[in-house]
């Protein structure tokens, strides 16, 4: 006999879908940067492009964890899987490492500054909110 699943509110689906849309943009940005796609990278100066292409492999790996962990977390939320929590935790590890790297590695002044750190803060806030939401969804039985 199957166990009775908790009734999922409509807001769950809205949050899960919005999280996927948000994280899909991160996946697009990551992919276009890795491919050095002209559509994204064409508006950067040579110095700025060199900054992005000079990341060591370990940084790119953690960046990938941050991006694809969040995409997986969003998809797992939509699938109502408890593994969404773990996926968002993996993403958090990636974001921690890449944020520390950005803080210690000099970047071109045109890339750094308040705008960069504002976007970084928004990423942190959304990721932490999604992690908290996934944990709450698990405790309420929305995901299992």
Secondary structure elements and pairings:
Elements: H1 10-34, H2 38-41, H3 46-53, H4 57-78, H5 83-104, H6 114-139
Helix pairs in contact: 1-4, 4-5, 5-6
Sum up the structure in keywords.
mainly alpha; transmembrane; 144 residues; membrane
Listing every helix as H and every strand as E from the N terminus to the C terminus, the arrangement reads HHHHHH
Radius of gyration: 17 Å
Portion of residues within helices: over 70%
Q: What overall form do the CA principal axes indicate?
A: elongated
What amount of the residues lies in strands? Answer: under 5%
Secondary structure tally, helices: 6
**Which structural class fits the helix and strand makeup?**
mainly alpha
Number of strands: 0
Mean pLDDT: 94
Q: Major β-sheet, in short?
A: none
Q: Between the first and last Cα atoms, what is the distance in angstroms? A: 16 Å
**Number of separate structural domains:** 1
Unreliable residue runs: none
Keywords: Membrane, Transmembrane, Transmembrane helix
Protein name: Sugar transporter
Organism: Croceicoccus marinus
Transmembrane segments: 50-71, 83-104, 116-134
In short:
Keywords: Membrane, Transmembrane, Transmembrane helix. It comes from Croceicoccus marinus. By secondary structure, the protein is an all-alpha fold.
Structure characterization notes:
Keywords: Membrane, Transmembrane, Transmembrane helix. The chain crosses the membrane at residues 50-71, 83-104, 116-134. This is Sugar transporter. It comes from Croceicoccus marinus. The radius of gyration is 17 Å and the shape is elongated. It has helices at 10-34, 38-41, 46-53, 57-78, 83-104, 114-139. It has one domain. It has six helices and no strands. The longest helix is centred in the last third of the chain and has 26 residues, at 114-139. The model has no long low-confidence stretch (mean pLDDT 94). Helix 1 (10-34) runs antiparallel to helix 4 (57-78), helix 4 (57-78) packs antiparallel against helix 5 and helix 5 (83-104) runs antiparallel to helix 6 (114-139). The two termini are 16 Å apart. It is an all-alpha fold.
